[in-house]
Amino acid sequence: MVMGFQENGHITMERRNAKTGESEEREVTESVEKNWEVYPLFGEHK
Prior knowledge:
There is one protein chain. Helix content is 0%, strand content 39%. With 46 residues, the chain is mainly β. Strands 1-2-3 form a 3-stranded antiparallel β-sheet, with no helix packed on it. The model has no long low-confidence stretch (mean pLDDT 89). Residues 1-31 are annotated as: Disordered.
C-alpha cells in the first residue's frame, strides 16, 4: 500500500495487486491541527 500525506490533511492511498495489476485508490481528508505546535517567530523566543 502506498500512502501520501499532505500538510492540509489530505491523504491518498493506493493498493495494488501484484498478480493481477488491479489497483484501488482512496482519498480522505482529516484534521491535522493536533499534529502541529505553535512556535514563536525567529528572534521572539523568551
